[in-house]
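Chapter summary example: a protein plus uridine-5'-diphosphate.
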Amino acid sequence: NLSEFRFIVVGSGFFGAAMAERIATILREPVLVLERRHHLGGNSYSVPDPETGIEIHPYGSHLFHTSSDAVWQWIGRFSRFTHYRHRVFTRYRGRTYTMPINLMTLNTLFGLDLTPEQARGFLAGEAAREPYPDPANLEEKAISLVGRRLYEAFIKGYTAKQWETDPRELPADVITRLPVRLNYNDFYFNDIYEGLPVDGYHAIFDRIFANSLIHAVTNCDFFDVRALLRPDAIVIYTGPIDRYFDYCCGRLSWRTLDFQIERPPVADWQGTAVVNYAEQDVPFTRIHEFRHLHPERRYRCDRTVIMREYSRFATATDEPYYPVNTPADRRIYDQYAALAAQETQVVFGGRLGTYRYLDMHQAIGAALKAFEREVMPLVVPA
Ligand code: FAD
Ligand code: UDP
């Protein structure tokens, strides 16, 4: 009976899952989680492939990394983590380079043999050819970091495919997700903690939702059952914020992804978990080969699973994955944020609910904070 629940969480991704867990564990209150998809876990979900047993990430490889002790401790209650550290390679004009841009990338592309100090001077020279003292968008930021030649090789084409948006309209912090290094460190992330859950993300969600106070329902859209909920319910909403307000201030732009899975009959197809394709005329952005995410497992060797990732604008019926965040989007979002502030019984959270490009650890960190700052005050009178 849906009307029994005072706490409703819409969406079972990491934001919703962490919220439900806090409500059940700290408040010891029953909580109803409504999930539109057929499984729990949102985009972070992973599951063994029924045909090969290889753990696949159906929404793209999800690498867990954080420098937050609070987040690492929280997730550590639901899983042990492997020591996997992510590396990415990128293909450009028939050759393979290490990504993010580091000393090896630079030396290989230009046929040089620079030391770190020489590379510093080299990159400064590259950037000085087209100076942006106050870079205000992705393109200016990227060129100010590495210069136009590296930008055009490794960033321009990939970014064009990923966003189909003028890179001068994209926020600079999309590119500063990637470090630029003057040494041979080619790890993708800089965080203190990194790894993959030993038995997959689905096991994490199974454990979170095993709490007897959490009642999770899949294949259930909040908007279909809203009328059956208690009028005084406290709702944690992690769906798209523009959908919540019936698009009354216009549609936010989102990117969605199409994934194409193949199971070639070889032990190892590309030699690593993720290869990016930098050139614009290759239609996909990257290829995932999931067996490499768990080198500690003994997978069969007669087949592997690869997945090509294609990016495009989300239409009304597509799953939104990435907020595009152009200046026009920010203006629309600000109007929704003002409306959200008036919804005193609703907490908006997560990638979709706050229109922010959050990684898993940031979604969890935001949920732990929002529980303290937004949910607790609704329950405990100040
Ligand atoms: P989501 O996981 O999107 O969950 C939202 C849930 O709400 C969904 O399950 C949706 O079905 C449900 N929902 C929406 N509307 C309704 C409704 N009306 N009724 C019921 N349910 C509804 N992060 C990392 O840290 N490392 C990575 O390597 C990484 N790689 C990524 C790769 C890709 C391709 C993508 C798209 C994201 C990646 N992320 C990564 C980010 C990660 O997916 C997010 O940080 C995380 O999923 C955010 O959790 P969330 O709860 O905000 O949203
Ligand atoms: N990017 C790029 N070339 C690459 C990898 C990334 O230009 O080989 C840019 C691109 O704009 C991308 C952004 O950097 O959207 C962030 O990359 P990241 O790998 O963090 O994206 P995600 O894994 O979140 O899709």
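Key point: The two ends are 31 Å apart (CA to CA).
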